[in-house]
Amino acid sequence: MTGRERTGQPVSAEAERRPSVPGSSGLLEGLLFPLAILGFWWIGSALGLWNTFLLPSPASVGRAAVRLIRSGDLLRHIGASSLRVFWGFGLSCLTAFPLGVLLGVRPRLGRLVNGTLEFLRHVPPLALLPLLLLWFGIGEASKTAIIVLAAFFPILLNTVDGIRRCDQNLVEVGVSLGLSEGERLRRIRLPWALPSILTGLRLGLGYSWRALIGAELIAASSGLGYLIHDAQGLSRSDIIVVAIVTMGFLGALVDDLFFRLAKHLVPWKGGDGHGRN
């Protein structure tokens, strides 16, 4: 029986699923599967179960990582990719969030533009990359546009969904108290929609990374996607693995930080909403 159960406090499903303070046992459990994969990879490479040109050994990947870190190339590529994500994701937030709030409080306007938005939502951002390269060139603008398109709709749809799902009884209470529409939005609708909005932001941030790497594989002179593309031309599979592992670590780190921020902002929901994706 946990401390909360003894004191009679309810234990949420999110708290049961993910401990607020990870202990040593939880950390070990989380490391078991990655360590098993690493062990199989190491043993398989040592026994020659596959061609190490196609899948290099962990030792060669480690040596490549050390060389990239010492030369500063890895940090330079990480910085370039992170800066692009920062600008693209920021522009997505500045456009998708206010539009989502507007469509949420004005359902009639939402019905007018819903068909167009649904059409655009189902067009993969990378499918537009050739056009974006023609319009904006191979500089930063085309990559930023790809990120904006990738992150825009998760943020927009989750914001709209959160605003529209607001308890109408609370809105009517606000009306009876004489709150203006702006005050009802600020004091009732937005706090209610915050878990869904944070879910959209979290999804949009993940989509930003994936779209960026695809864009960097095609048109870039820096970034983790470029590092993979350049290593492919040089037949350096060890560098490719380093870049892939770096992406995974960065994505997991950013997502965990965002989860902790959301949990702090929305403690009554455990930082995890159930919006649309």
Structural class: mainly alpha
Contiguous helical run count: 12
What would you report as the Rg, rounded to the nearest angstrom?
A: 23 Å
**Distance between the ends:** 36 Å
Mean pLDDT: 80
Which of globular, elongated, flat, extended, rod-shaped describes the shape? elongated
Q: State the CATH architecture of the domain at 75-109 and 125-277.
A: Orthogonal Bundle
Percent of sequence in beta strands: under 5%
Query: What is the strand tally?
Result: 0
CATH topology of the domain at 75-109 and 125-277: MetI-like fold
Low-confidence stretches: 1-22, 270-277
Element-level helix/strand string: HHHHHHHHHHHH
Q: Biggest β-sheet, characterized?
A: none
CATH superfamily of the domain at 75-109 and 125-277: MetI-like
Tell me the helix content.
over 70%
Q: Report the CATH C-level class of the domain at 75-109 and 125-277.
A: Mainly Alpha
Protein architecture, described:
The chain has 277 residues and is an all-alpha fold. The protein has a domain at 75-109 and 125-277: MetI-like fold (Orthogonal Bundle). Helix content is 78%, strand content 0%. It contains twelve helices and no strands.
